[in-house]
Amino acid sequence: MSQMPSRKKQKTVDTLAMAAEGATESLASDDGGQIARQDAGFTEELPSLPFVHKYKNGKYYYVRECYEEYYQVVKKMLDTEEDFVTVTGTPGELHGCYSIRPRGGGIGKSVFYAYFFQYFLKEVKNTWIIATAYRECQLNEATVFEDDGKSEELVFPSTKDIVRASKRAHTQGKNVLFLCDGLPDRFLSPMVVFTSPNVEWLKSVRKDNSALYMPLWCMKMQLLGRLS
Questions:
Q1: N or C: which end of the chain has fewer CB within 10 A?
Q2: pLDDT value at 3 more than 50
């Protein structure tokens, strides 16, 4: 039986959303402008990342209005030492979790994965990103992105390869963030998982209140996304 989110959970997301809005305003007023945020509707060049499904809309992707807000919310959760964050698309009320803006249609979670990767890599220093793609909970692709701009695509990757890369980063005094397109076969920390709705996975993370449900695409946004 579906449950409505508790007041505690709603308070949590309201607080995170307010923090995200404050961070967005701070970025907008920053004269340094190293990362120039624009109004919704612009496009970004798709980074070379491991994806579960090949992106078929060309070299660029459409940036949805909600991406900046969700980026700040996820980053805030990581900054407060949340070990695992799941970004998915089912309205939050179905599993007792929360949604900032529940609407109808698809969500483009893999595109948000690309957006999150790009801005996190630009904004957060001294951190390596290990990006992975999982198909049916099996590791399919993995790339290690160092904080100096170097990257290494792992050939026939295994979990041992990922752990080894993580240890190498730590020996150099670096932090590590794991980004997963698709459901991983195990938890690594800290980790952000971008996935289509999966009941069993959502049950496993429910107790941590760590699932975010993105707003759905309307028809206009779907058309704009395909034309980008």
A1: N
A2: no
